[in-house]
Design goal:
Length: 119
């Protein structure tokens, strides 16, 4: 998200700036196995709106982690893939995804319990 002059307080600050939000990690993960067209990405990231997917892909492209290839043909074809920076980021996200897998049941139970207490 290159807006004006940005400085980061640490590496985690920089990483969260790139992957922050609900959809970016899901988009990055969807691209881990190779190149995909927009419609494929929309199916691979359930729940994301077309507008949000476009916005998030543009931000990821601006940050240099996603490459957008436009083929000048009729009808036009656009494909998205990870850059080397994006592949390195996905590798860094693997342990976080594994943590989520390992503790998903506990996370859901805690959220349900918190929701019951709030009601």
């Amino acid at each position: 998200m290159a807006k004006g002059k940005i400085s980061y307080s640490c590496g985690l600050d920089a990483a969260v700036d790139v992957v922050g939000g609900k959809w970016k990690p899901m988009i990055l993960w969807a691209l881990h196995d190779g190149t995909h067209r927009f419609g494929e990405l929309k199916r691979l990231v359930p729940g994301v709106s077309e507008k949000m997917l476009i916005q998030q892909l543009r931000e990821l492209e601006a940050d240099g982690v996603v490459h957008r290839e436009v083929y000048r043909e009729v009808p036009p074809r656009v494909e998205y893939s990870l850059t080397d920076l994006g592949q390195a980021l996905n590798t860094a996200l693997l342990p976080l995804g594994q943590w989520g897998e390992d503790f998903m049941d506990r996370i859901l139970a805690n959220k349900a319990r918190a929701g019951d207490q709030a009601a």
